Automatic annotation (TrEMBL):
InterPro entries: DUF5723. Residues 43-428 form the DUF5723 domain. This is DUF5723 domain-containing protein. It holds the Pfam family DUF5723.
């Protein structure tokens, strides 16, 4: 299994780095009135003017989201760093930094073509983008097994199920419309057509380990699957997957998604808003799939005949037992090609609820934003507080602080919004403690967004 997981992990990372592109934008921009991309957070949010993006630079996004950091795995001991496996690192210190589900996610993004214009009673938007989401999801038990192993007495059991490495990559075409129903209520909606580019997943569906003084027992089941970008090589007689190679780019699937949103001015200067984005599905077609043999299991009761001499034919009972042990472990880790199939996954549906109160003739406002992502392998929840400064019509700045089930952070975004031109850059998550190699120590949560757009047309009230 070690080699199979290594193969799929390398492919997933390769896909993410070479074509991992997604049309995301910063939560910090939710309350920025002239931010051209905030309709991606809530389709009811409008901008005063029409806009057109600079091709391929209208919105570039890079994000890493994790509840793990460098300080989770490395510990200072004198003038050197040691890993969590070092005997000087207490198990409780290391395991106390982990959660039941440990996550590392990578989002990379790019808008290819994007524009918006006012017509038909509201603002209309068009966006063609590349999207990618890659992640590794690991239960706490896998690290506990590595650190503590078998207890001195009794039976030690580990459940290391649902270890997953995956990547999804697709092209998204989104059409949106936002309009005011009356002077208080505004609504918006988007429809998204998705064309799959690449998908890969390696997953240990179940792994049960039982360890005692007399016996070790391991039973597991897992699978790997991939679109045509990954070609799995198999033994023609047994169907065993022996290697992988890069395949061909092509249409790997189709999907459909929707965004829905609304805003409501409750009282003067206080606006409430809510949205559901990425409601829908993605279907991956003709996936090459491999599965482990569910009947295989590993049972180890110790070595006999230690120190035994070779028999007349030169065979050694201890060596034979060691070879048998190796064969059993190898059989447990083999994947066998199964029939190609289609898989339908839900999109990463996200709910946002916001409230904004403005003062000083809207030159300053205070915002609260709740974000909950339901789709994917893990539910994500975040609360963000933002202060929005609009000292000039052509300059808007937002500072924020956030708390989530992946950690806490601070961020900022600047939007230069002079007539005819719009430039923005910023981050939601700025780590405050880094290593010398600029790696976040506590939690690897960081993102960056940058975009150049051009505005046009009559200014509208929003």
């Amino acid at each position: 299994m070690k080699h199979n997981i290594k193969y799929i992990l390398s492919v997933c990372i390769g896909i993410a780095l070479t074509m991992g592109l997604s049309a995301q934008t910063l939560n910090s921009s939710y309350f920025m009135e002239k931010m051209t991309k905030r309709n991606q957070l809530n389709p009811a949010l409008k901008t005063p003017n029409g806009y057109v993006s600079f091709p391929a630079l209208g919105n570039f996004y890079l994000g890493v989201n994790s509840n793990l950091g460098l300080g989770t795995f490395l510990y200072p001991r004198g003038n050197e760093l040691v890993t969590f496996l070092h005997p000087s690192v207490p198990a409780d210190d290391f395991l106390g930094k982990l959660t039941p589900n440990n996550t590392v996610e990578l989002d990379l993004g790019l808008d290819i073509i994007s524009f918006g214009f006012w017509a038909w009673g509201g603002q209309n938007t068009f966006n063609l983008a590349l999207k990618s989401y890659s992640g590794a999801y690991m239960p706490k038990e896998i690290f506990q097994f590595l650190k503590t192993g078998q207890k001195e007495t009794g039976i030690t059991r580990y459940d290391m199920s649902n270890i997953t490495v995956s990547t999804d990559n697709y092209v998204e075409l989104a059409l949106g419309h936002a309009r005011d129903i009356n002077d208080k209520l505004g609504v918006g909606a988007k429809v998204k057509v998705l064309v799959g580019a690449a998908h890969a997943e390696a997953r240990i569906d179940r792994m049960d380990i039982s360890m005692s003084q007399d016996e070790w027992f391991i039973k597991q089941a897992g699978h790997i699957q991939a679109s045509s970008l990954l070609k799995l090589e198999t033994d023609p007689e047994t169907g065993e997957i022996t290697d992988y190679d890069t395949g061909d780019f092509g249409v790997a699937g189709f999907g459909l998604g929707f965004d829905l949103g609304a805003t409501y001015e409750l009282i003067d200067n206080l606006t409430l808003s809510a949205a559901l984005t990425d409601i829908g599905f993605m279907q991956w077609n003709n996936l090459t799939r491999g599965e482990t043999d569910p009947t295989k299991e590993f049972r180890y009761t110790g070595f006999d005949n230690i120190g035994a001499e070779d028999d007349e034919e030169g065979n050694n009972p201890f060596d034979d037992k060691a070879d048998e042990l190796g064969d059993d472990l190898e059989a447990l880790a083999k994947f066998y090609k199964s029939d190609s199939q289609s898989v339908t996954n839900s999109l990463r549906t996200t709910m946002r609820i916001g409230a904004e109160y403005s003062i000083l003739d809207n030159h300053i406002s205070f915002g609260l934003l709740s974000t909950t992502r339901f789709g994917g392998h893990r539910t994500y929840a975040e609360g963000m507080a933002a202060v929005n400064f609009r000292p000039l019509s052509a300059l808007h700045i937002t500072l924020n602080g956030s708390v989530s089930n992946m950690g806490s952070s601070v961020g900022a975004i600047l939007n230069v919004c002079a007539p005819g031109f719009n430039l923005f850059f910023g981050t939601d998550y700025f780590a405050t403690k880094y290593s010398k190699q600029f790696i976040p120590i506590n939690h690897a949560r960081a993102n960056f967004c940058f975009g150049i757009n051009f505005t046009f047309g009559k200014k509208h009230e929003i």
